[in-house]
Design goal:
With about 325 residues, the chain is an alpha/beta fold. It is built from 13 helices and 8 strands.
């Protein structure tokens, strides 16, 4: 269906977009998927990642991620009906043996093991204990090494570290700083097994990243009582809340990639690209990223991104009574 659509971006026709928002922005993501499939003739993404708030989660430790069992089931069935794979972000670094018994985490894995039409449902992991638990109890789920794993394991920029992770996991997420390390990327074999995050809005070479990931994992285990003041103090001095640093600093600006940089990665043979949406309060930025990346925007007399963005939002917003 996708290959013949005049709306598909011709720069990367075989790219596989992996989008954030599972269990938080399901309505908008599913509506956008249906809009593109029915009206534009292509499917904008085939993977979605996220996780409800539970002990195994990290990186998305937010109150609005609290979900009932029925909400989780409804979202899972909707993705299953469209053959969209679900990647569970169970990336907590701080898990111990007793946490493996968490009933919610195990129930979610059971559900997505059974509702897995593409055989691509996966768990994104950073903790070896949880990795071994998932491998034993839920062999139907694929295992993905997370950014937290390569960051807090000290493997950034290390080719041997990536090779070892590729031996231990089905797929490997590349550290955001390494997405622009072209010498390293060229040496990675089986490039279709590596996932590249292309819209990271943290700063380059962030010294706070390992501590941030560790604190999020600890917060997930003590959601109502965690003291985040130490992280907030470090963050205030890090530059990641300064607009000039984010947009213009030579070595610390955000890691979000531009079109030529994405095209270079595609030409190198990479096909699996991740679009993050961590911490956002609504789906507008996720849909915007999909519009600007998945749709072609080179027509002389029409901006397909803006036109279809407007039409999409109009299609799902409630109409005022006449």
């Amino acid at each position: 269906m996708s290959g013949n659509s005049p709306y598909l971006n011709p720069q990367w026709p075989e790219a596989d977009w992996d989008v954030s928002g599972a269990f938080t922005h399901d309505r908008e993501l599913l509506s956008f998927f249906d809009y593109c499939r029915l009206l534009l003739g292509f499917e904008p993404f085939h993977m979605v990642h996220g996780a409800p708030l539970c002990l195994w989660n990290s990186g998305r430790v937010l109150q609005h991620l609290l979900r009932s069992a029925e909400e989780i089931r409804a979202a899972g069935l909707a993705y299953e009906a469209r053959k969209i794979a679900v990647f569970l972000t169970f990336t907590n670094l701080a898990l111990q043996e007793e946490h493996l018994k968490d009933p919610l985490g195990n129930a979610i894995c059971t559900f997505f093991s059974r509702h897995n039409p593409t055989k691509r449902n996966s768990v994104i992991l950073a903790n070896d204990l949880l990795r071994d638990h998932i491998r034993e109890k839920f062999p139907e789920l694929r295992l993905i090494s997370s950014i937290l794993k390569i960051t807090n394991g000290g493997g950034k920029g290390n080719l041997d570290a990536y090779k070892q992770l590729a031996d231990e996991y089905d797929d490997v997420m590349v550290h955001p700083d390494d997405v622009l390390n072209y010498d390293l990327l060229e040496k990675l074999e089986d490039k279709d097994r590596y996932i590249l995050l292309i819209n990271e809005y943290c700063i380059r070479n962030c010294p706070l990243r390992p501590f941030h990931y560790k604190s999020l994992s600890e917060m997930s285990l003590n959601f109502t009582g965690y003291d985040s003041s130490e992280f907030e103090k470090k963050q205030s001095k890090n530059g990641c809340q300064n607009l000039f640093t984010l947009l213009a600093h030579e070595t610390k600006s955000v890691l979000a990639l531009n079109t030529p940089e994405i095209a270079r990665l595609y030409d190198m043979g990479f096909r699996h690209f991740k679009l993050q949406g961590r911490g956002i309060s609504n789906a507008s930025s996720i849909v915007f990223d999909l519009l600007r990346i998945a749709l072609r925007n080179d027509a002389e007399d029409e901006n397909a991104m803006h036109r279809n963005g407007q039409l999409f939002w109009e299609s799902i917003l409630p109409h005022p009574e006449s």
